[in-house]
Amino acid sequence: MATRHGTVRPAQQHLKERFLDAALRVLVDDGVTGLTVRKVAEAAGASTIAVYTRFGGRSGLLDTLYERTFDLLRETLEALPPLSSDHEGDLLAFAMTYRRFALEGPARYALMFERPVTDFSPDPSLRVAVVERIFALLVKRVERASPPGADDVRLSFLLWTAMHGLVSNELTQQARGPIPGWFLRPTEDANEPVYLEGVSAMIAGLNLK
Description:
- It is a single chain.
- The protein is an all-alpha fold.
- It has helices at 13-30, 37-44, 48-55, 58-78, 87-104, 106-113, 124-145, 152-176, 188-205.
- The chain has a domain at 66-205: Tetracycline Repressor, domain 2 (Orthogonal Bundle).
- The chain contains nine helices and no strands.
- It is globular, with a radius of gyration of 19 Å.
- The relative contact order is 0.11.
- Mean pLDDT is 89; it is low at 1-6.
């Protein structure tokens, strides 16, 4: 999509993809703090001037990478099995896939939902567009399970808040180390059941079935 940094001509698209692939590798390997134009250029086997030419600068590169991370989440969620008559099961499948995506790429998730780069804020129109694409996928599942006359958008927001809050807390514990005496051990077999319990409780509380 077009952002404050303009559009990429079709002839340049393959070069854009090359730089984005490189930026994703740097993000995964070095985290958000290591995501510099120089490192992306090196990973792509190109010059920093080439990155500036393609993206108009660092903020343009970050905008485009920001959009790519949401595209990856959308593609992951769209790859879920077709919706079934088990509406609660469909919602739980969505929630568990969301959690897995977050845990597989904490730096990627931070770029999407936090502000790890203090001098970068995504293009406002881009931010609205990418979040709406993901949220629409959840609304589609909620509206099948919600009571007649319910506000599906409101219910979807409440469910997403539970999902997002639980996995964000889990990532914080991973990054900073477990709190002494915390009731959860910092292991997958401890965290997943609690996440599932919390999301299931929200689904039940919202009368989604």
